[in-house]
## 1
Amino acid sequence: MLVIGTAGHIDHGKSSIVKRLTKTDPDRLPEEKKRGMTIDLGFAFYKTEQAETIAFVDVPGHERFVKNMVAGVGGIDVVMLVIAADDGWMPQTEEHFRIVKLLNVPRGIVVINKIDLADDEILELLEMEVAEKTAGSFLEDAPIVKISAQTGEGFDEVKTILEKLPSEVKSQRDIGKPRLFIDRSFVRPGIGGVVTGTLRGGELSVGQSVTLIPSLVEAKIKSLHSNNNDVKTAVPGQRTAVSFTGIDKELLIRGGVVFAGWAEVAQLDDRVLALQMEIVP
């Protein structure tokens, strides 16, 4: 399964693009629908003509929710950087771009949305700005697609790119060191504590003992869910939900990691919170 994460400034149309592609509204919370903005991570799935599944992780664009954005893009294969034609490259466009570069996301697509609100001259200038901003980065040669999530213009080109991606993006390798970066945690009645994320590095199986970071507690996997099915074993590259036996929700921390295969974990005595970051050439 290929995982694509959105990125970009608030109100540039990330969720609208995902909804038009997948027919699923990633804004699932009542407050999101009331306020008309993405607050938390949203998830949707797209099926290619070759029956390949592409998972979309839709992230919030507001600066107040950047921690949610970071949790969402930690396990993606491809980023879809969305820029509104009538707004241009904005502060959270830059911030999200820097974050995915720091996380070494290997592949990307640049989508210029809301082209129905801009003329040809504005679009040409914006393309030049995007080329300047992404020069020397992993997005330097990325396709730039001009679309309107409102009218549907340009979506055929997006779908053509999506059809090719599963065969072009290197599949996740099984190196015997499974790790799942937690992007959601919750309690399901009758099941208990559950975390979700994209599995990397190896398989996880029901009954397997794993370690939770940063809680540093050992847990046993009670059940696994992937591709809308209960499974006994989850493989690398899959969106995976994991439930545990006898673990309090407070220990299932978003942004943490579920892993197995290491005997020891290096610890820091102090926690450091970075309020601002700058990439130095």
## 2
Amino acid sequence: MKYFVDKNTNLRNFISEKLKISKNKSKNLIDKRIVFVNNKRIWISNYNLKVGDIIQIPDYIDNSSFDLKNSIIYEDDFIIGVNKYYNIITDNNYKSLENLLKNYFSNNEIKAIHRLDKETSGANIFAKNNTIFENFKENWDEIYIKKIYLAKSYNSADFDKIEINSPIDGKPANTKVHLISKNNKYSFFKIELSTGRKHQIRIHLSKLGYPILGDKIYGPNILKSDLEKFTQRQMLHSYEILIKNPFNNNLINIKAPLSEDFSNILLKLGFNPKLCDSK
């Protein structure tokens, strides 16, 4: 949606008036970092507008309600693997994926073994009780084998593969980036992690000059393409996790199919979603 400012006001009041919503809801919308003023991402609710400014707001989709049953991609006696939708947090909230699983399985002991960012989709693993959780966490360095992500980034990569060793918050962080495909504006990457720092992939790709499409924190704030402005979330997907069960040493390989929105954006950018297994 595009609006033209016809009087001096602030962003919160303007959106409240145009969308006929409360000022609190207007502020919540601005806080999502999806509002653009003259092609610049703005998240300050009292931002002053001038006559002639152009405001753009996407039709934001909240998919916090989803088909949990069909999102369960792995289960054994110890863990549950879920293909997490974007816009849902992993734990520590009554609307979290962890809580949805507790209700679905009637099991209040279910606990997330690792977290994904709210806007990241893909493979997310949960323990069925606290004993299992503690065992996985205590032995994580020994049982963790491989974690693969897929990302769509700004700019055309000038490499086929690269390894990034750059500390995050004073801790070692290692990211291996493989180029799947590229065009003159974007790159499609497969990424392997050997460490798991907060926002690791997003930070490393941004520092490298290839911020993730839709990243509202580490990506560019001035965008002219409607596709870039209205990409609903960061285009990062937890594609595959390979671990060893500490109770029986069985290998567990969990692969999360691409979400519909991720595949659709790939196609719009000119990439074939089937290429994700090509590297």
## 3
Amino acid sequence: MVGVTNKASVTTAQEAVIEVNEATFERDVLQRSQTTPVVIDFWAPWCGPCRVLGPTLERLAHEAGGSWVLAKINVDENPRLAQMFRVQGIPAVKAVYQGKIVDEFTGALPESQVRAWLKRVVPDPNADLLAMAQALEATNPAEAIARYRLILGQDPKNETALFNLGRLLALRGDPEGIVTLKQVPASSSFSSRATAGLAIANLVNAPAEPAEGSEGLYRQAAAAVRAGDYATAIEQLLTIVGRDRALRDDGARKALLALFALLGDDHPLVGPARRRLANLLF
């Protein structure tokens, strides 16, 4: 992924797709690429695959809101530009940043592959905000939630922000969290975790009033999760698994699995807790 300055944001929606020729190439591609990635689409009117890929690129360029610009070059009208870029077949797509080709592909790729390619060559304008939100999760989850909302306001399709927002809200016992987790697309890399995490609702919605025995421990675990004290919650749930699997239809084990899914395998508590749970079960 290439770096980019905030000057990219000045590109207007009308400039998302531009026609480029030999006379405008210096200004519209080389100079513009100093601050904004430019994706060149070498095409021709008679090219069938070009007519398939072109509309996809144009739609994605408008969708990107100025984070990159699509420059369309008709190879029949601009053969010297095609020769300069060593175009052997069309459609030929090349990403240019600061005057250099950073990546390219040839042929009419499906939209999913084009999107994946763009993620490699075009910087995510929300990357810094996303990193800040993730860093705040442990110390100030309310602020992290606010920042995830801000990201989604700018980029509603940001799956990382969507999952993390749903995850934090669900762990706090906010019903919006479950609704948000259900919005994670099935095609997302977060889909399995979001689905597995839905069961956390049974835990965090447990009554706050004290109770005796295993039910009391379960309610204490629920309060601990809502407060962000996951270590205490895990200890109490493991204790219940070890002595009372019948409670809430094996509810403690189900709650642990949901908690593991939402925290993620890279969380320092999850690995050891998974091993302890396995020892209790097997």
## 4
Amino acid sequence: MLVRLVRMFLEGAAGVAVTSLIGLYVYQNKLVYPSWAQGARDHVDTPDNYNLPYVERRLMTKDGVEIRAFDIRREDSNTTWLILCPNAGNIGYFLSVVELIYRQFNSSVFIYSYRGYGFSQGSPSESGLKYDADCVMSFLQHDSFYKSQKMVLYGRSLGGANAIYIARNYPQMCDGVILENTFLNIRKVIPHVFPWLRYVAFMCHEVWDSEEEIKFVDPTLPFLFLSGKKDEIVPPEHMETLFNLCPSDNKEIIEFENGYHNDTIVQEGYWDAVSNFLNKYV
């Protein structure tokens, strides 16, 4: 009788574990891409709230998904920043920084919503976000204004993985890359954020393997790595490794001792480091 009860318990526990793992596998995109959180799909601030001129672009990807973008041009600029956002919120959350870039750096800015974010259609996935990037780069490549501009990629967290993808695949369009608190790949972040999932991290199908991708970027393309040493989501060692793997002849890493994942951008000296990098290499 006791043996039978133990067997029933173990079988039940195994069934729950298997069901949980299947659920985790199927719904992992909700964790990796929390575009649904905090009502970020219901309202998106627009650049006119910051007195910025803009045109809203509706771009169609090659798999038929419409994505939204803010095209914020300065007619007197010679540099455009392409903003690659992190995985939370929407592009409206980043407009205060867009204003700083536009005014302080006298630059044009192009910022877009990944599929499934803000008012863009579709659902987010690694392959889908790469289609989005391809679509945006095609637009910029053929636009008479942007194709005459220098292009700086600026990616934070997940946006850094996007920036590395673009840098590898469109080197002829890029003049500088700025990465903040990005990761080697998502599977290597999981044990840090969700320790109890470390043994099933291999089941994560959203990989974003920047650790491999960055090895193949153009060595003439300048890179700036901005790392918060107190980052509680992406271990700072990830940024150090990406820096070491990057083959760029013109690369710098700046570390902020008190920077966490989401507040490195407000650390003292952050924008001075960006300015120095751009003046030196772009």
